[in-house]
Amino acid sequence: MKANAYANLAFVKYWGKRDPRLNIPLNNSISMNLSAARTTTSVIFDSALNQDEVYLGDRPADAKFAARVSAHLDRLRSLAGTQDRARVETRNSFPASTGFASSASGFAALTRAGAGALGLDLDERALSRLARQGSGSACRSIPGGFVEWYAGSADDDSYAEMLAPADHWDIVAVSVIVAAEAKPVSSSDGHLLALDSPFWDARAAQVAARLDTVRRAILERDFDTFGREIEMEALSMHTIMMTSAHVIEDRWQSGVYYWHPDTLDLLVTVQAWRREGMDVYFTLDAGPTVHLMCPGDQADRVRRAVRKHQQGRDWTVMTSHAADGAALI
Ligand code: PMV
Q: Which of 100, 137, 291 to mutate to test the pocket of ligand 1 (most atoms within 8 A of CB)?
């Protein structure tokens, strides 16, 4: 059984877990599936196999990834009451380590294909809850289009749901990958540091109102309100990251810097482009990639501005509109 799923870009962010084992977040989040970042996964259960076989593209996956996939297959196996091992093949339409959450599209596609292969009759909410256990943000790649993840407080009430379908609003993410990602701290570890930031309470106090504003801006297609909120939100999350003190190799670090110098260059430049009349705002994830959000009819102008500003630097640009949810193919 084969399934497609798309990575998603959060406008209100998931950063911090209430329950790290079940991936229950501290707050709701809102995202859009990205058409340029697709994972296709096939899963075949076979009683003749002694162990799961996991391939990334044409190559066997590394042990760490394969173990995560097997642990996720165990969740599906226990629901179906089978011990059969599986052969899993997964392919991404985008390069690895580019700041795209391939774990989100990956675990959403694996959940959809695995459940299909086992004949499990699961509704979207059940699939989203399962995907969440593989990787938190993967639960948002199960529904289509614009999505909200309800934080909940336990396994059964923490899942994502569609706010509006992909064709509801023609906005585009021009994602500028300024550097191959070598994360100083994995997002799994970063989530656990969030509550240590002295600014956590300030962020928590803003999030409820921001969720309402961003949800309404999406439903009303109000681009300026949307843009202002997502920019402030990205900076709020990075404020937490940059003020989460931790220790690496016995050395104290004051915070986690996911930015590259070109990240800051683009953030400053986006503000200048707006002063020149462009409709463009940025958001960021746990990495150096800058995602530029603009109305669909402005995407060419934004891409041209990026190319002009790039000046020989080794950047990759990917353009996405809102994409559908995880589906069998
Ligand atoms: O699902 P994780 O553990 O990879 O966390 C993703 C966290 C961010 O991408 C930084 C924010 C988000 O909401 O997607």
A: 137
Rounded distance between C-alpha atoms, residue 132 and residue 250, angstroms: 32
In angstroms, the first-to-last Cα distance of the chain is: 8
Q: Which ligand 1 atom is the nearest neighbour of the CA of 29?
A: 13
Q: At residue 24, what are phi and psi to the nearest 5 degrees?
A: -95, 120
How confident is the prediction for the chain on average, in pLDDT?
Answer: 96
Instruction: Using the structure block, give the residue that is written with the tokens 């209430």.
Output: 18
| HSE of 95, CA atoms in CB hemisphere, 13 A | 13
Nearest atom in ligand 1 to 101's CA? 4
Find how far residue 125's CA is from the centre of its chain: 18
pLDDT tens for each residue of 8-44: 999 999 999 999 999 999 999 999 999 999 999 999 9
Pocket of ligand 1, candidates 6, 15, 236: which has the most ligand atoms within 8 Å of its Cβ, to mutate?
15
Q: What is the largest CA-CA distance in the chain?
A: 64
- Burial (Cβ within 10 Å: 0-12, 13-18, ≥19) of residue 57: exposed
Ligand 1: distance of its center to the CA of 137 in Å?
6
Ligand 1 surroundings by CB, under 6 angstroms:
10, 13-15, 29, 101, 103, 135-137, 187-188, 191, 285-286
Instruction: Locate the ligand 1 atom nearest the alpha carbon of residue 104 and give its number.
Output: 1
Q: pLDDT tens digits for 208-235? A: 999 999 999 999 999 999 999 999 999 9
Tell me if the pTM is above 0.90: yes
**Residue 295's beta-bridge partner residues?**
171
From CA 18, how far away is CA 33, in angstroms rounded? 24
